[in-house]
């Protein structure tokens, strides 16, 4: 049976390819030292290992839910990563733009505008949304 850390690292690698070297064994992955150095480990196990690996929703659907929550929270740093994850999970640029438009009605224009800026930063190397 796979432990939550290993499962989380596998999901993380699938959704954010290139962030962690694919040939680096899970037991060698170290997210650093210093202040709150366990935070990423908590996220890997609890979010990627426990939540993103559940069968109840497809990853594409989880991306839609996650983006809505992060937009409402105004979580800029996480939005950037999750826009990339959403594309990896099959959402198109047009669908991602619709998420931003839809959020403007429920989370407000400032939150949607923040999300648009995060998406532009996330995709700058590829193209503009």
From TrEMBL:
Residue ranges occupied by any Carboxymuconolactone decarboxylase-like domain in the UniProt entry: 48-119
A family per Pfam: CMD
Chain segments annotated as transmembrane: none
One of the record's GO molecular function terms: peroxiredoxin activity
Superkingdom: Bacteria
PANTHER family, A to Z: 4-CARBOXYMUCONOLACTONE DECARBOXYLASE FAMILY PROTEIN, CARBOXYMUCONOLACTONE DECARBOXYLASE-LIKE DOMAIN-CONTAINING PROTEIN
Protein name: 4-carboxymuconolactone decarboxylase
Source species: Mycolicibacterium confluentis
